[in-house]
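INTERNAL AUDIT FORM
Audit reference: QA-55
Scope: verify that the stored structure record matches its stored sequence.
Auditor: D.O.
Record contents follow.
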Amino acid sequence: MNPAELEEQKRKVEELKKKILEQKRKTADSSADTEKRAEEARKAEEEAKKREEEEAAEKAEEEAKKKEEEEALRKEEDQRRKEEEERRKAEEEAIRKAEQEAKKKAENAARLKEEEERKKALEEAKEQADLAAQKRAEEDERRKEEESRRKIEEARRKIEEQKKKEAEQKKKEEEEKKKKEEEARKKAEAKKTAPSGGGSKASPAAIQAYLSALKQAWADGQLSKDEEVLLATLRKSLGITPEEHAGLEQEVQLEIYLEAVVNGWKDGSISPEDSENLDNLREKFRISADEHMRMEKQVRQEILKQRA
């Protein structure tokens, strides 16, 4: 190959190289532009995606905030309803308690009123009983005083009657001197023999009269000074000896004590007041414990027999 051809060949080769380089450059430029556009597209896509994500986040945040607000509103509403329900229950409970308290107060007031009325009735009944007891006591006292006066008057009457009889007897004795002297002698002999004992010198009528006077005098369980004087006068006028007086007095005392035992046990049991009265009588009348037990046993058996 000649140099011209070689030069031509070299020129062509150079041109080819230049074309190849140019082509490579263009290709490179095209690739760079493509890459740039791709990068821009990628960036745009990323920005769009970012904006979408931001929008989605904002939307999610708004929704979350909305839900949170709705949840807060719901909770607030629930709390309000709960508080309203608690308030209603509290009011109902307060009303129920108030009604119970009012009912309890009314029941207490009614019970107190009933107790007060019952207490008042008992007090009135007690007052009536006390008044009745006082009235009975006054009547018993008045009756005892009247009975005592009656006994004294009866004894005085008997003494006056006896004095009258003695006066009549004296008149008869004056008319019948011998008979009077004989009777005076007999009385004198009776007075002399009376302290030493012996048989009864008084007549049965005189004994019976003196026994009746003794019963009247001892009816209240004791003798007054006036009654003792009247009995002594009556003994002298009736010719009752000390032995006869002692026997008759013991008989009367036993009879009075027996009546007191019967009265004490008439209800089936003896009261402290009756027991104290029997103790006083037993001490005054010198009644032995055995005699008391015998009479009390007899009275109780009789009462039980009557009830059966």
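Auditor finding: record pair retrieved intact. Residues 190-200 have pLDDT under 50 and may be disordered.
Action required: none
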